[in-house]
Specification:
It is built from two helices and eight strands; from the N terminus they run E-H-E-E-E-E-H-E-E-E. By secondary structure, the protein is α/β, with parallel strands linked by helices. A four-stranded mixed β-sheet has the order 1-4-3-2, covered by helices on one side.
């Protein structure tokens, strides 16, 4: 079996709200929208799939990690807009912090050190 990357996808309860979050706040480019919305960043497709049951069973269903140059500044910028952001955690080869979209899907920020 030969595998190829297709997309990272998140189930979301409100497609319009999710598009606003990923496009307007995070800066991903909306590539297409039909039944789902496909956004892109650095050649990676993030697909938003409507699912009314999201949020009824707990947290997120995938994880997307964004590399940043200054993790503390990025966390502060997200927090300033009302996004829930976790603490910066030191790892052996970098710094990591989690943040969440409006449906509770966890994403990460990563800074190489």
């Amino acid at each position: 079996m030969e595998l190829h990357f297709d997309a990272i996808y998140y189930r979301v309860s409100d497609l319009d709200r999710a598009i606003g979050f990923y496009r307007d706040l995070l800066g991903l480019q909306l590539a297409r929208r039909d039944v789902v919305a496909c956004l892109e960043i650095d050649g990676v497709t993030v697909e938003l799939v409507p699912d009314e049951s999201v949020g009824q069973s707990g947290g997120g269903n995938a994880r997307l990690c964004f590399r940043v140059e200054d993790i503390r500044a990025a966390c502060a910028e997200l927090a300033k807009t009302g996004v829930r952001v976790g603490s910066v955690v030191e790892k052996s080869n970098g710094l990591l912090a989690a943040f969440w979209d409006p449906d509770g899907n966890e994403m990460s920020l990563w800074q190489y050190v």
